[in-house]
Write a structure and sequence with these properties.
Layout (H helix, E strand, L loop, with lengths): L2 E2 L6 H12 L26 H14 L5 E7 L6 E7 L8 E5 L8 H15 L3 H9 L1 E5 L4 H4 L2 E3 L3 E3 L25 E2 L8 E2 L25 H4 L10 H13 L3 E8 L1 E2 L11 E4 L9 E5 L2 E5 L3 H19 L8 E3 L3 H5 L8 H6 L4 E8 L3 H4 L1 H24 L8 H6 L6 E2 L9
Parallel strand pairs: 1-6, 4-5, 4-10, 10-16, 12-15
Antiparallel strand pairs: 2-3, 3-5, 6-7, 8-9, 11-17, 12-16, 13-14
Helix pairs in contact: 2-3, 3-12, 4-12, 8-12
């Protein structure tokens, strides 16, 4: 169901949408595809929350017991049900993997990829699939931010989605004064015309964190100040749902899927990257401590879980580079230390979960949204994520992932190249 609204595109919105066009340096070398200035981009082919629900329930019915679905919560605004799809039990001895996609509502291709993968796991009798099902427990949250994913229309612009959910800041709910400032990752007005949170900043290493109990921890600092590394507060139902699934599964690996703008591989090779990956989000020497009911809890990143993160990222890089691959331009995601003065992102789900003895992997598919690349490119990027996640599951099933030298991650995967904007239309595409 497409939500329809009519909004006046005020100056701030116009700037946010078109700044990359007006500020772009002249470029003609980077390969595309690029959106043409007069090109109409429809999002109608993307899965919507009701589509995800219908397909999940159909898969479960046809899986003959392989797959179990469960509603783990409801979105804050539209109250869409949020589903987890389970392949395997949490209490077995297999390696356990948790995968979520569309934590940012306008980053949809991960959802498309894992829905394809789940269908294969639910119905295929291929030997590799059977090996995965026998030897790996994998749970999927295929659309965490259903509010943001819900397509709406902007007058004179067209289809749109939002990064944030739909949710007001309610300080009294958490025992705070009514005039207490919102967390820095809350936006008072999104494109949709509603307030909302960046769910991917609403996480804390202490998985039982409750702002109503730990209200002294609330820090309404601005974004520039907070990049130094303050955790979030689990104030969104979506983040709490993810947190609860994480606690239930206690995964060995957590995969978080996103979109990013466009980067070239390097100054020497101006080919556009198709994927950026990353396996570390906090430094090894960081310790986060919190007191809860008189007990002191300390969270840190372990070398063991970091090595597994490196192995998983290296495996995906190697598999997607193999042979005459369409996915040749893969780099690390820009090191957070370059931007934030260190690996200081415990407020992201990847950062918080990695401080709970879990390996992590970030997928950043090219294109800040599908508007950046267009429909023709989407199939390629969906296939890239599908192949990478499938190879990860297979690598755990066969044990291949454990044979990879963790140093490959640092030594062989290229660092991120320069970020670029949409080329100047006058320079060609």
């Amino acid at each position: 169901m497409k939500k329809k609204i009519s909004l006046v595109l005020v100056f701030m919105m116009v700037f946010a949408v078109f700044a990359s066009y007006s500020l772009a340096n002249p470029q003609s070398i980077p390969n595309g595809p690029w959106i043409q200035p007069d090109q109409n981009v429809s999002l109608s082919s993307l899965l919507q929350p009701e589509d995800v629900e219908q397909r999940l329930l159909d898969m479960e019915r046809r899986s003959k017991g392989r797959m179990e679905t469960e509603i783990i919560g409801y979105s804050s605004g539209y109250e869409w049900p949020i589903y987890v799809a389970k392949f395997g039990e949490a209490d077995n001895d297999n390696p356990k993997i948790l995968i979520d996609t569309q934590i940012h509502g306008n980053e949809p291709l991960g959802t498309e990829a894992v829905m394809h993968l789940m269908q294969t796991l639910a119905m295929s009798n291929n030997k590799e699939v059977r090996d995965i099902l026998d030897n790996v427990t994998v749970w999927f949250i295929p659309m965490l931010n259903a509010d943001g994913a819900t397509i709406f229309e902007i007058e004179d612009y067209g289809d749109a989605q939002t990064r944030q959910n739909i949710q007001y800041w309610t300080p009294e709910e958490w025992g705070l004064d009514a005039d207490t400032d919102a967390p820095w990752y809350h936006v008072s007005q999104t494109w949709r015309g509603t307030p909302g949170y960046d769910i991917n900043r609403d996480a804390h290493p202490h998985l039982d964190f409750d702002l109503a109990v730990h209200s002294d921890q609330h820090s309404p600092c601005n974004e520039d100040e907070n990049w130094g590394g303050q955790p979030g507060f689990y104030v969104t139902p979506e983040a709490r749902a993810l947190r609860d699934v994480f606690k239930e599964l206690e995964p060995d690996l957590y995969i978080n899927h996103h979109h990013r703008g466009s980067n070239i591989e390097s100054e020497e090779n101006p080919e556009l990257t198709t994927l950026q990956i990353l396996g570390q989000f906090v430094p090894l020497d960081r310790e986060d401590t919190i007191v809860d009911n008189g007990e002191t809890y300390t969270y840190t990143l372990t070398e063991e879980s970091l090595d597994l993160s490196r192995q998983v990222n290296a495996l995906v890089y190697q598999k997607l580079q193999k042979g005459n691959s369409l996915f040749g331009q893969i780099t690390k995601y820009p090191r957070v230390e370059d931007f934030y003065g260190g690996y200081g992102l415990p407020g992201t789900t990847l950062g918080s979960f990695s401080m709970n003895d879990t390996a992590v992997m970030l997928y950043e598919t090219r294109g800040q949204s599908t508007r950046d690349t267009g429909q023709k490119a989407n199939g390629r990027y969906i296939r890239q994520s599908l192949d990478g996640i499938y190879e990860t599951l297979l690598g755990f099933a066969t044990g291949e992932v454990y044979d990879i030298d963790p140093s490959f991650y640092e030594d062989e995967i290229p660092e991120a190249g320069p970020r670029i904007t949409v080329p100047d239309p006058g320079q060609g595409f």
